[in-house]
Amino acid sequence: MAAKTLHPHVKLEGEIERCRGEGQWGQLRLLARQLLPPARPPRKAGAQDAEDYGSLLLAEALLEECLKENFSKLKDSIPLSEKNEPRLRDAKQYLTDILSRGRLRPKYMTEALLILGKLHYVEGSYRDAVSMYARAGIDDLSTRGEPLYVLRLLTEAFLIKGLSLERSTNSVASRARLSEREEEVVACFQTACVLAQLYLQELEKTLNNTHSRSIKGSSVQCSEFELSYFLEAALQSAYVTHLKKGNVVEGMRSLRETLRTVETKATQPFKMVLLHSLSEDCYWSPLSDPLPEFMSKEGQSCVSSLLWRRPELYSDENAYCPQDNVEEALLLLLLSESMANRDAVISRAPEQQDDRALSLRDASAVYDLLSITLGRRGQYVMLSECLERALKFAFDEFHLWYQLALSMVACGKSAHAVSVLRECAKLRPADPTVPLLAAKLCIGPLHWLEQGEHFAKTVIDLGEDAGESLAKGYLALGLTYSLQATDATLKGTQDELNKKALQTLERARELAPEDPQIILYLSLQLALVRQISDAIEHLQEALQLCPHDINSLHLLALLFSAQKHYQPALDVIHMAVAEYPESFSLLFTKVKLEWMHRGPEEALVTCRHMLQLWQMVYSVVQHSNSERSSSVTETPVIKKHNGLHLLLPDAHDTDCGSQRASSLAASRLEQALSEITVQSSAMKQGPAQLWTALEQIWLQAGK
């Protein structure tokens, strides 16, 4: 009979401990009411102890529910008032009565002190909070064999003690005492961080065991557990304190340890902080020790002795460990991207609008950083795959759609990029850059001239609302007409399209009289209709605006050669080759001019130089391909104006002078928008194109 009467009590105790450990405060409040009788007749000591225990549970539940509702105030360090918070007032009254009577067991009296210390802190009474924790003797408490909720209480106690000491340091007059206080604060935060990790790991085990018999996929994971303000702050407190003090090594170490022990929504910002803390100058691998010169600048860490065990790290077996700051940054971003996709709010319900906006904001920040990191390293295929996964929650979100379009442009998926740009144009019909980029793709790599004409006219139809892009719209339309004339088979159709191209380009010149690129294309169109003198005159105007433009110099040399002025043509080519020594297109023209004007011997010298240049380019390409296949380290983009005939400017030529490789690599995505082109002047860095160039060099040498 004794066992039967004891069983309900044991079951109730277990349910209470579970609710306190998992933060089920509403359920705990109901359980606490069962221990509080409705009336208050004289009772025995055991009944009075049970009543006080029920009051303790009720006080904790009321306090936690109050804190949950005032999360934003806690985050902004705004003290709570009893006048405005009835549950806070009731909880304080319960706790004060319990401590004044002193009838509970020592264990529960200590818990009452810990809970009251938290209550004093949220009221802004920091000294009272420290006093409660001193009475409880938290430095001497042990977590060995204690229920899960004790870990949570101690985590919050050390955190709040550190915060309270930190906010009362102004009252310390002695510099030595102030230094001791700061060390004590750091020790409290470090202990709170480790305890929080232990608590979350134990909580995950408990939740998994509780739901082990549930349907697969329906169990509540620790990553879905809603952290309280104090638990979230405990995870962050250690690294924040170290970074504030300038202890970057300790801060990064704390971040890494946390990421290797616990994975929750609260740790997602950790990846961003660690990402910004990574530096090539002071980087070390997560599994190695930092350099001694960095450790000498750091203070010694101290963690409470009550920690009889440390959090479990994720297994190192078959685990990937980054070797440099680039790999670790990319790893952090890909992990963040995975969590952003998993936690995305895709429901269009009005009541979830705020959650959806917050989810999209967090995801956009991750994808922006991914675009920068992967874009600088030429990993556009991986970037486009990541952005495609974002479309499930990017409905009507222009930014992510446009990022996807740019990544597809950069990795050569031009047809897919045009489809995405059509969607972007629907989202922002008044933005002229979207149809301009689509026109660029249709005119250039795809040779979809009808669609290119449609996109160009879309820009022109915007009129003055297109701003400076209006001239580019006329330029794109003029280029479309010119290419259609080249494709036409009937002489009458060719003449009509060439006339329309010339008129359209002249209109573009009127809108942007000082744009050297528009003048270049106007000169080219004049040359195509055999108006060589007018073409040279316009081209000289373009060179006055941009003296070092490779395409203008190249076209000028060809126009001089068309008039049989070989020496001026060679002078211009020499000038261009001096500025762009690695351009195969210029060198092929130089060979032809030398053969025509000076004879085959000098042309053979240039062919020999081209063979040496080809060998150098081939070695660079092979090395770049091997690096790209083995790692994600940044590979420089080498500017090559290779070609077998006159080629028009490509999207990389955003200024008129020569550009450094590093600046090209960093701004490739931006430059994809800046120009409207007909043909890419840079040969694709691949074996097939290189072998074709080699064949042409030998053919030139054999003539």
From TrEMBL:
Coiled-coil segments on the chain, per record: none
Q: Which InterPro entries does the UniProt record give?
A: Endocytosis_PI4K-reg_protein, TPR-like_helical_dom_sf, TTC7_N
Chain ranges passing through the membrane = none
Q: Where is the Tetratricopeptide repeat protein 7 N-terminal domain?
A: 3-387
Q: Its GO biological process terms? A: phosphatidylinositol phosphate biosynthetic process; protein localization to plasma membrane
The UniProt entry, under Pfam families, shows: TTC7_N
Please provide one cellular component term from the Gene Ontology annotations of this protein. plasma membrane
Protein name in the entry: TTC7A protein
Q: Which organism is it from?
A: Upupa epops (Eurasian hoopoe)
Lineage from the top down?
Eukaryota, Metazoa, Chordata, Craniata, Vertebrata
